[in-house]
Specification:
Layout lengths: L7 H6 L3 H14 L11 H8 L3 H13 L3 E4 L3 E4 L4 H22 L5 H20 L1 H18 L3 H21 L5 H16 L3 H17 L15 H8 L2
Antiparallel strand pairs: 1-2
Helix pairs in contact: 2-4, 2-11, 3-4, 5-7, 5-8, 5-10, 6-7, 6-9, 7-8, 7-9, 9-10
């Protein structure tokens, strides 16, 4: 007898609600639906998303750990507003850590891992035209995936945090993201890693992070208050 596969709705319902709330808030912040400095009250968010304040608090703690929000004693949470100087520091450290990721993957990238990376970039390419916001999100997650494939939990944790912080800097100051460049550069990097070309892979990674850094230029940023956009993100997440 064939066991029925779980439906998409059942699969989503098995995900902890704090994870879903975390993803909703993270996307809203990086999409600049919430302006830098915007307060994020637990009760309002919980009411809007239909979850308890405890669940919201857990999600906010994760966002705080990634540098996307600030938790201030007796004042609650607000969206972070890193400076350009912070951005230069973040990208400098990220460049060094992503070079370490390349070092760790050379000679250890198995065919299944290569296929996983290629499938991810295929998803980036597919979203490039149909959903630019998702394409940008996937571009950052590509680097997190590379770090995960090193099987070094400490490296993964720090790369994940730096990718989130980088995304915040780019959302505040950066020029428009070029998904075409991301896809082509990611494919070239996979190819270099697959043939164990350490020198070329390091060169490509350095150039890629350098190009991302170069896009982090100051631009005007209009704050329109707290937009009520959580419902749209919640719908996409199945909450």
């Amino acid at each position: 007898m064939t066991t029925p596969k779980p439906s998409a709705s059942n699969a989503k319902s098995s995900v902890p609600k704090s994870d879903v709330v975390y993803r909703i808030l993270k996307r809203a912040i990086l999409d600049q639906a919430f302006a830098a400095g915007t307060k994020l009250p637990e009760d309002s968010i919980g009411e809007r998303l239909g979850v308890s304040r405890t669940i919201v608090r857990q999600a906010l703690a994760r966002l705080n750990g990634e540098g996307l929000i600030e938790l201030r004693p007796n004042k609650g949470a607000c969206v972070s507003h890193p400076s350009l100087e912070d951005g230069h520091d973040i990208f400098a450290v990220r460049r060094a850590l992503e070079t370490l990721v390349v070092d760790s993957l050379i000679g250890r990238l198995t065919p299944p891992k290569i296929k996983e990376l290629e499938a991810h970039v295929d998803a980036e390419d597919k979203a490039r035209v149909s959903n630019p916001s998702t394409s940008i999100q996937l571009a950052g997650e590509f680097h997190v995936l590379l770090a995960r494939l090193t099987e070094n939990a400490t490296l993964l944790r720090y790369v994940t945090e730096l990718v989130s912080r980088s995304s915040m800097i780019l959302s505040l100051y950066g020029r428009p993201h070029s998904s075409d460049c991301a896809v082509s550069e990611h494919r070239a990097l996979i190819a270099a890693l697959a043939r164990n070309d350490h020198e070329k892979a390091c060169e490509l990674m350095g150039h890629h992070i350098g190009a991302i850094t170069a896009r982090a230029l100051l631009k005007s940023n209009v704050e329109d208050g707290l937009p009520d956009l959580l419902a749209a993100y919640a719908k996409e997440e199945g909450l």
